[in-house]
Amino acid sequence: MKFINIKLTNFRNYKKLNLSFNPTKNIIIGENGEGKTNIVEALYVLALSKSFRGSKEDVIILNGEDSTCIEGTVKDNYKDKYKLVLSKEGKKVFINDTKIDKISDYLSKINIVLFTSEDLKLIKDTPNTRRRLINIELSQYSNEYLKLLFNYNKVLKQRNAFLKMLYFNGNASRNYLDILTDQLIEIGLKLYNYRQDFVNNISNYIENNYYKIAKKHGLVLSYKSDYKNKSKEDLLNMYKKNIDKDITQGKTNLGIHHDDFIFELNGNNLKDYGSEGEQKNAIISLKMAEIDIFKNDLNIMPILILDDLFSELDKKKINNILDFISDDIQTFVTTTDLTKVDKRLKVGSKIFKIKNGSIKEVNYE
């Protein structure tokens, strides 16, 4: 799977931009604020319909404009044209000029493994950040998962709203709450199974990857969930026991929306007991395991984006990443300093130099 080109209209700081890419290695160099990350962000938005920067959707529209458009051609078994338009009226997506009515039917077509400097903080960050990562990856493997997640969040919102109503009107019937709880459990169990399978698949690779990097065994990604090893009946009883607390607080205190994913090294939580170096090596091992799953389990060659890692990682850790990258994976690298990029990446790369809003393409000799 490879991006052949991309065309941007009113995206971030680009009024108009057309780029053609190298099928193997692409390096985008520029000072901070010049727009280098905007280019790989556009690739990501075209693939997953949202930014990895976590900001409001409309900020990707060029100031003063009403809409933005991203178009790109991707070659897998065939060449397909993808298009995303975002405006005040909403978001529209197209494949080969045919409008796709549901975003969930559009996703899972372009597969990207993204590795940013922010990911290095994943272990130290909140459970919500780790859930978000797992949700993104699973939505690429299965659009059914994405549909389930959407429905779960919809029912959760309805249940929380009804809990707040019950707090102010204690005499109201709880029959509707029972219906919502039943729906939440039904969907939640399916999501739990998807997440457990994902963690199991990661476990097939992550320890071996960590050993290749750090020459240590024992890295495990474990899954913490209220739903773990529970039947539907167990979960119904669990929610019933918490009903008074839920009503008082106006929110659902138990469920897969509280799941967490724990990195452990020989039984010790890396968040509490791991060094910064061990934490970074664990994240590298995870990202490379994501590639392993795409390649070995799904027979898909994903696109790899390395955004601003060379300023955050030492040479040894960068080499650890490069040892996992083969020429059959199209790779995009952003950096402020080309001298920090390993020669193995530079040789044969197409290099895009950005300065004062202008982009110059050169090949590394």
Pattern of helices and strands: EEEHEEEEHEHHHHEHHEEHHEHEHEE
Going by CATH, the architecture of the largest domain would be Up-down Bundle
Rg estimate, integer Å: 22 Å
How many E strands?
15
Terminal-residue CA separation: 26 Å
Name the poorly predicted regions.
Answer: none
The SS-based structural class is alpha/beta
Major sheet attributes? 6 strands, antiparallel
Helical content band: 40-55%
- So how many helices? 12
Strand content: 15-25%
Choose one word for the global shape: globular
Which class of the largest domain in CATH terms?
Mainly Alpha
The third-level CATH topology of the largest domain is Glutathione S-transferase Yfyf (Class Pi), Chain A, domain 2
Can you identify the CATH superfamily of the largest domain? RecF/RecN/SMC, N-terminal domain
Number of domains: 2
How do the strands of the widest beta sheet line up side by side? 2-1-4-5-6-7
Mean pLDDT: 91
What does this structure look like?
This protein is of the alpha/beta class. It folds into two domains: 1-111 and 301-365, Rossmann fold (3-Layer(aba) Sandwich); 123-299, RecF/RecN/SMC, N-terminal domain (Glutathione S-transferase Yfyf (Class Pi), Chain A, domain 2). The protein has twelve helices and 15 strands. The chain has a six-stranded antiparallel β-sheet with strand order 2-1-4-5-6-7. A six-stranded mixed β-sheet has the order 8-12-13-3-14-15, sandwiched between helices. It has a three-stranded antiparallel β-sheet with strand order 9-10-11. Strand 12 (303-307), helix 11 and strand 13 (331-335) form a beta-alpha-beta unit. Helix 4 crosses helix 8. The protein is globular and about 75 Å long. It starts with a strand and ends with a strand. The mean pLDDT is 91.
